[in-house]
Amino acid sequence: MRSKEHIKTVILALLVLMSLVLTYMTWKFTPDLQTVDKETNKDHASQSIGKTNNVDMSEVITPYQIIYSKADHSEGMVASRQNVSTVLKPLKNQHVTHSDQMHSDHNLIIPDLTDEFLVLDFTYDMPLATYLGDVLNISAKVPSNFKFNRLLIDQSHDNKIQLYAISKNRHDVVRMTLSSKASSVNKTVAALKKDMEPYSEMITNKDTIDSATHIFAPKSPKHLKSYRTIYNHISVDKMNSVLFNDSVVVRSAKNGATTYNNNTGVANYDNKTEKYKYNNLSEDKATSKNMHETIPGTFDYINEHGGFTDDFRLFHTDNKSGQLTYQMFLNGRPTFNSGDLNTVKVSWSEDGIYSYARALLKSNVTIDSGEKDEKLQGAEKVRSALANNPNIDFEKVNNITIGYKRVDQSDKDDIEVQRNSEFKPHWYIEYDGKWYAYDNDGGLE
């Protein structure tokens, strides 16, 4: 009997001791957060195709040219990232002390516009409230549905910065007075002016006859270089990991074209053209046409997953379909390619990305091609040729600028680098809302 009691006492003592040891170990336990972080970072990296969050919105939602207009003389420059940053610096984080909207049924004339101002030209309609809030960090009461594609930077009668956002049809303008002094803009002009070149002011229709609405283009473009770019490929698996919420199934693979799908979406990839396209399959979703949501939403989504693998900038907004086109720029100039190998096309829905299309290529090396610098026809000669072409309705010419024509060449000898391109300077015309290469004989390609 005594031995049984002794055994019970020993067992109880052991249980108490074990309890104390376990309690101590629990108190002293520290999870290996470094390992967790490594796993988290690994998962995040697997869901990106480039450097994540590597660009600011002001580098993507940006003008394509900067113009300085003084009296009857205009100078301008390409909108490189550095140039745009310099222009926007005195505008950011300011306060709008006054704003109003003006409308004209005929040619837009701004009575209080001085004879010296800066022009920022965009290739797309941009909601003013979105640009002020998300790009300039300015809180202002402006018409929520107002869109613009030209911004004038001027000074008010009391030497404050005054902005004029002009609609694409050149009939409406929103005037805004900022809290900061115009002297900061004068310093900006002085800093940029040394790198500007003469620009021509052109009139194409009754809506572009005022100084605020002229079409501007380089007067006598010369010393233009050509470039050669070698590309690396983006993994299809990387793209699938970004766009699909869970595992995907290869539904079919034939003649180089492969289809991937799951319960939420479907993607197609053609390894001959290197083009990838994803579509959301949810029947309860629809493409958003609200650019207040679509522009910031698509920018954040692409940026978070490293999709801005090159200098991609917003280039076109389709208010009917809701699709946005981000286009590749080179040295501040837009690049053009008939096969859409230089664009990212996306649309948005209430719950996120709705469609996503791009070539699975990203620049590896871009170098001077070594060819002789080019001199293009002058802007006035281009204007005259277009105006005298009976097959062109000159009133539908919306923009004239210089871009780069992308000519692609295959290089299948290298497994890792299978494509290279040459970028050659060329005149481009926005005609009736679409961009065309000028064919040097007064027509459009």
What does this structure look like?
- The structure is a single chain.
- This protein is 23% helix and 38% strand.
- The chain is an alpha+beta fold and 445 residues long.
- Strands 10, 11, 12, 13, 14, 15, 16, 17, 18, 19, 20, 21, 22 and 23 form a 14-stranded mixed β-sheet that branches. It has a nine-stranded antiparallel β-sheet with strand order 3-7-6-5-4-1-2-8-9.
- The longest helix has 27 residues, at 2-28.
- Residues 26-45 and 412-417 have low confidence and may be disordered.
Question: Can you lay out the helices and strands and say which pair or pack?
Answer:
Elements: H1 2-28, H2 33-46, H3 57-60, E1 65-70, E2 73-78, H4 81-88, E3 96-103, E4 116-127, H5 128-135, E5 147-155, E6 160-166, E7 172-181, H6 183-193, E8 197-202, E9 215-218, E10 227-233, H7 236-243, E11 249-254, E12 257-261, E13 265-270, E14 275-280, H8 291-304, E15 312-317, E16 324-330, E17 333-336, E18 343-349, E19 352-359, E20 361-368, H9 379-387, E21 397-410, E22 419-431, E23 434-437
Question: What tags apply to this protein structure?
Answer:
23% helix, alpha+beta, 445 residues, 9 helices, 38% strand
What is the percent of helical residues?
A: 10-25%
Average residue pLDDT: 88
Distance between the termini: 108 Å
Shape: globular
Question: Which structural class fits the helix and strand makeup?
Answer: alpha+beta
Main beta sheet strand tally, sense and closure: 14 strands, mixed
**Taking Cα atoms only, what radius of gyration do you get, to the nearest Å?**
28 Å
Regarding quaternary structure, what we see is single chain
Count of extended strands: 23
Beta content: 35-45%
Q: How many helices in DSSP terms?
A: 9
- Residue ranges: pLDDT <50 for 5 or more in a row? 26-45, 412-417
Domain Regulatory protein YycH: 5-440
Pfam families: YycH (PF07435)
Protein name: Two-component system activity regulator YycH
